[in-house]
Specification:
single chain, about 180 residues, mainly alpha
């Protein structure tokens, strides 16, 4: 960061009156604080600039919207997914399983609440059962939504559900490999 005198010299301010010097000092402080914030922000977060053509950016926007993310958030999630070898997959089955579990827990909570109001007490067993259900819920939500399957798990699941999956996939992979080798 440059000093006030250096800033005056760089901007060509010489022989200023007292009021002009005060105004110049205010301008310098504004400049200094802006530069300081930029410097501090750069140390905390790194910035990467990527250029896309219009068509690619529209595709990226659609994919981000589909996953209910911003474009930068989608790019960050994609990078994390690549590093962890996971996919960003909207699994309707997983979401439905979690919704069902939530409904079951809500029903149990309602029953416990009703019983507690009626009898003015809740048994320790009921509270422990509730605690266990909440822990199960947390584990299932994390497993199903926060950590999507790896590529290997995804392929195994698809093969299990559709035995012809790999036989259909192999010609496609071979075609991609051939195209990649040709370029």
């Amino acid at each position: 960061m440059i000093s006030f005198q250096e800033w005056l010299d760089e901007n060509g301010f010489m022989n200023l009156s007292r009021d002009e010097r005060r105004q110049a000092h205010r301008n310098y402080r504004t400049f200094y604080h802006a530069e300081y914030r930029k410097l501090k922000h750069r140390k905390i977060k790194r910035r990467v600039e990527i250029h896309f053509d219009t068509q690619d950016y529209k595709q990226l926007e659609k994919k981000a919207e589909k996953h209910q993310l911003t474009v930068p958030g989608f790019i960050r999630q994609t990078i994390r997914s690549y590093d962890e070898q996971t996919f960003i997959i909207l699994e309707k089955e997983a979401i439905q399983a979690v919704e069902l579990l939530l409904r079951q827990i809500l029903g149990q909570l309602t029953q416990i609440s009703f019983e507690a109001k009626r009898s003015h007490s809740v048994s320790l067993d009921e509270l422990e059962r509730l605690q266990k259900e909440v822990k199960t819920l947390k584990a299932n939500v994390s497993k199903k939504l926060a950590f999507p399957p790896t590529a290997k798990e995804f392929l195994i699941k698809q093969q299990r559900e559709n035995p012809e999956f790999l036989s259909r996939l192999m010609p496609l992979i071979q075609s991609l490999l051939k195209d990649n080798n040709d370029t």
